[in-house]
Every structure is written in structure tokens, then in C-alpha cells.
Design a protein that fits this description.
alpha/beta; 7-stranded parallel beta sheet
């Protein structure tokens, strides 16, 4: 497995990371606890060292599974997790919350779930319009000073917010959606990451499985617990209209003796930067 350094942070990760959301939630029902641990351990055995989770995944259960599966190799992996949602004790989502004390509380809870004494990369999951980003960065900076967090990142942030946060605490990574189906980062975010020396980590680089070629207009998604039911790109009409792109990927894959997913993942690396 090739490695990548996230910007100027010095944080080195495997070129392909493991998104730990889907083992518990989002694309339908999660998998049993033991199976989740086996999947995570198998990913590590295959060379993955970058594992991405969040308190909201489950909620909480993804962090628990990650902690259980990786505790024996903790010094060999990079674990990223996230704060930013206001989660009730019963798991209900009450909105956003990035108040400094709440960030601290979430980090303490995440450390327990992950069975570790530090978080390698802590993202703000979504920008909280009620809390200035400078206060958020300042709260994380204090956690960095205490050794509980090593690196700071933002998810789904725009250029102005990135620049303001980076001025308080240098950002290691920005995690925004980026794939053949979601090109928004090309407008400005990739450019500012390059300017400031910040790593860019795309989420759903396969377009929520679409680019694998395993989705067509006859695919049925679970009405309960599958986020894709809310995305226009997954209506039968849109899937059918966009299938020509998948056919191109499949053709390139045949020429290169690769999988459609491998071609889709490599696509952004071969494209010119746009700012």
C-alpha cells in the first residue's frame, strides 16, 4: 500500500483509507460487532493504516468497533474521528454543537470509545454557524497542547472558513465530498489546500458506490437507514441517464486490466487542478 503525507502536517497515511461509517450505518443496516472487527482487522492486514470514524456513526458504535479492532495495532494506524453534532443520550440528533466545552466532552467520550489516549486527526464534522471558527480552532488547540489530539481538520468547509481556522491552528486536512459526481472542491477548496499546505481527503470518492458499476436503475435501496434515498443522483431516472459515465470507466478498466473502482479512484489524480 502506498503512503501519502497530508499537506505539511507530517501526518502519513495509507493512500486508501477505510471509512468506518458504513459498518454501522448509512447504506442500510450495519454489520454485527464481530464481523465489523474482522473487516477492520482485514483492512489493516491489507495495508490500510488510515481509519476514519465519527461519534455520529451509530451513534458511537463505530468508534467502539474501531477501538476494539485496532487496539493491538494502535501505534501502527492513524485514527480520525469527528465532532460537531449535538447528540442526545438516546442517539437523537438535535442539531449542531461546536461550543468549546462540548468539543472537550466529545473528545473525552471518543477517547474512551476508541480505547486510546490520543486522536490522530480530529475533524469538525460540520461548520456550526453559532460558534466562530476561531473559537473552535482555539478549543482544539488546547486539546493539542494536552496531547489528546495530534492534528486538526475540517469537513465540508469552504475557503474562507479554512483560511480563518488555519490562522489559529494549522489544519492537517480538509475532508469534503469529491468524486466524478461531486466536483465542487475544484472551484476553490483544492486551490487553497495547495496554497496553505493542507491535505485533502475526499469522502465518498466512489460516489457512494455508484462508480463501482454495481448500481443501475433497478437497484433497490433500503427505505430505512440508507442515505442514498435522499440524493437526486440515485433516482432511477438519474442512474439511467448517468450510466454512460460508468460505461466509460468500465471500458478504461478493461484496457488497464483494473477494476472500475480503481479507475474511479485514480481519476482525480490524473486531472488538472482548477481554482
Amino acid at each position: 500500500m502506498e503512503k501519502r503525507k497530508l499537506g505539511n502536517s507530517g501526518l502519513e497515511v495509507s493512500a486508501i483509507g477505510f471509512g468506518c461509517m458504513n459498518i454501522v450505518w448509512a447504506y442500510g443496516p450495519g454489520v454485527p460487532r464481530e464481523q465489523a472487527r474482522n473487516i477492520l482487522q482485514a483492512a489493516f492486514d491489507d495495508g490500510v493504516t488510515f481509519f476514519d470514524t465519527a461519534e455520529i456513526y451509530g451513534p458511537f458504535t463505530s468508534e467502539v468497533y474501531v477501538g476494539e479492532a485496532l487496539k493491538s495495532v494502535r501505534d501502527k494506524v492513524v485514527i480520525a474521528t469527528k465532532f460537531g453534532f449535538d447528540i442526545a443520550d438516546d442517539g437523537g440528533i438535535r442539531g449542531l454543537n461546536s461550543k468549546p466545552q462540548y468539543i472537550r466532552d466529545v473528545v473525552e467520550a471518543s477517547l474512551k470509545c476508541l480505547q486510546t489516549d490520543h486522536i490522530d486527526l480530529l475533524y469538525q464534522h460540520r461548520i456550526d454557524p453559532q460558534v466562530p471558527i476561531e473559537e473552535v480552532a482555539g478549543a482544539v488547540k488546547n486539546l493539542v497542547k494536552e496531547g489528546k489530539v495530534l492534528h486538526f481538520g475540517l469537513s465540508e468547509a469552504g475557503p474562507k472558513t479554512i483560511r480563518r481556522a488555519h490562522a489559529v491552528l494549522p489544519l492537517a486536512a480538509i475532508q469534503n465530498e469529491y468524486s466524478l459526481w461531486s466536483r465542487e472542491p475544484e472551484r476553490a477548496v483544492l486551490g487553497i489546500c495547495e496554497e496553505l499546505g493542507i491535505g485533502f481527503v475526499p469522502w465518498s470518492p466512489l460516489g457512494m458506490v455508484y462508480s463501482t458499476g454495481k448500481v443501475d436503475e433497478n437497484t433497490k435501496f433500503s427505505l430505512q437507514g440508507d442515505l442514498r434515498t435522499g440524493f437526486p443522483r440515485f433516482t432511477p431516472e438519474a442512474i439511467k441517464a448517468n450510466h454512460a459515465i460508468v460505461e466509460i470507466l468500465e471500458s478504461i478498466a478493461q484496457q488497464k486490466n483494473a477494476t472500475t473502482a480503481q479507475v474511479a479512484l485514480a481519476w482525480p489524480l490524473a486531472q488538472p487542478r482548477h481554482s
